[in-house]
Structure formats: structure tokens, C-alpha cells
Amino acid sequence: xxxxxxxxxxxxxxxxxxxIHIMNKEEIQLIINEVYPRIEKYYGYSKYHxxxxxxxxxxxxxxxxxxxAYDEDILSETxxxxxxxxxxxxxxxxxxxxxxxxxxxxxxALIHEYQHYLQSPIWFKRYYKMGYEYDTHPYxxxxxxxxxxxKTFA
Length: 154
Known about the structure:
By secondary structure, the chain is mainly α. It has one domain (23-153). It has seven helices and three strands, in the order ααβααββααα. The longest helix has 19 residues, at 25-43.
């Protein structure tokens, strides 16, 4: 158990508040540079894109999409505050770096989003139209399951 997780447990701080930023962008980028080529090699190319995805680091989704400053209180209360995402139009994996807590987290995020790169964009949307939600979506379940292979790339 990490020191932050331990302190949260001792002081009864909710788990979502344990995302105290402890890594900087440079540390995160070094980990990405180390492990991402292995992930690309292991999983290969998608038949839905011409090349493997780029990886970008951003502070949060609001700044990435608008380029404007934001009210952190409002953003933290919304559902649209992801840890990472795969942008199909840009063929880019986006890691929201303040959410990164350790090497395991980064590897799992890269694996998860790489699965979305490999998956059919048509079926990705179709499953949502069929009534699946994030927690029940077959592609999300598959991507989450794949995260358990993180040690392969550590």
C-alpha cells in the first residue's frame, strides 16, 4: 500500500481524494517512452487506423478541448473528467497527467486506451445505442480486463 493510500485509510479520506498529484509530466513521459513501444509491439496494429496512436499528456479534458482556464470545483463535480481517453478522430491516447499516481496506473491507462484503438468504432457506438453504459459496455469490460497484464510491460 502506498503512503497516500495508507494516509487516506488512516484518516478516513475518501478514495477519490487520494488522487493527490505525486508525479510530474516529465516522470510520466519517461514511463510512456519506456513502456508504450512494448505495448504497440505486443498488441500490434488496428485495422481501423493507418498507424498506432500518438500519446499526449494534458492537464484535463476541459483545457484540452477549449484551451481555456476552468473552474476546478465545477470540473471535479462533473462526470466528464476522465483519467485518460482514446480520441478516435485524432488517433490519440490522451493521458490526463494530474491523475497519474504511479507507473502501474500509467501502464494500465495506456493498455486500456490502446484496446479502444484496436476496437471497431462502429460497434463502440452501436453498443451505447443498444443501451449499454460505461460499466456494462463490452468494449470497456474487455479493456479493463486487459489492464491486468500491466506487469508484462513494467
